[in-house]
Amino acid sequence: MQEDDVRELLTIRLHEISGMVLPARSLSEGTLRFLALCVLREDPEIRGLVCMEEPENGIHPANLSAMVDLVRDLAVDPQETPGDDNPFRQVLINTHSPGVVQLVDSQDLLFADTSAHRTGSGQVTRRLRLRPLAGTWRAADGNGDHVTKLDILPYLEAPPDAQLSLDLDGRAA
Where in this chain does the record put each ATPase AAA-type core domain (predicted)? Predict the structure, then answer.
């Protein structure tokens, strides 16, 4: 990274193990997104609520687990006292990615949908609701407003029209 105090500019360059130096403009969107998440994680001054829309965009599927771990590490560890080594941050992401849903702890998942709601004046409107997965602490209140694994089947298995899958011995079928 180079600092230009006159123009108030930081220039980021990637130094590869081979010795090649690449400017940020030549890096993929996914690499830049991953780098931004790393910077957020390392900056103890960033506190409060961090919201992200589909952080997996541009991330290679092989790196999805590392990205989910990195996002998880951004949040405060509730088992430890908040401080410089454990900044007080809450992280909220939205995703449509089955891979992210499969990698996130089921206790941390909330599924968004809309439901009909009658206002005080009798008008019916739609409102957002966030529902936990059945069997998690978030669904423990017993009100029945949760989703089941059957409800989220598209996030747990290959789509019905999948053109490529693995058979039991690991060969492409």
Answer: 16-101
> How far, in Å, CA of 45 to CA of 150, rounded?
41
For 106, the 3-state DSSP assignment is helix
pTM attached to this predicted model: 0.78
**CA nearest 152: which of 109, 107, 105, 90?**
109
Averaged over 153-167, what is the pLDDT?
83
Q: Are residues 100 and 120 in the same domain?
A: no
Q: Answer whether residue 78 is part of any domain.
A: yes
Give CB contacts under 8 A, 24+ apart, made by 151-157: 151/111, 152/101, 152/111, 154/98, 155/98, 155/101, 155/102, 156/98, 156/101, 156/102
Cβ count near 71 (within 10 Å): 21
Q: Which residues pair with 153 in a beta bridge?
A: none
In terms of Cα–Cα distance, which of 3, 25, 72, 145 is closest to 64?
72
84 and 110 in a single domain? The answer is no
pLDDT tens, position by position, 94-111: 999 999 999 999 999 999
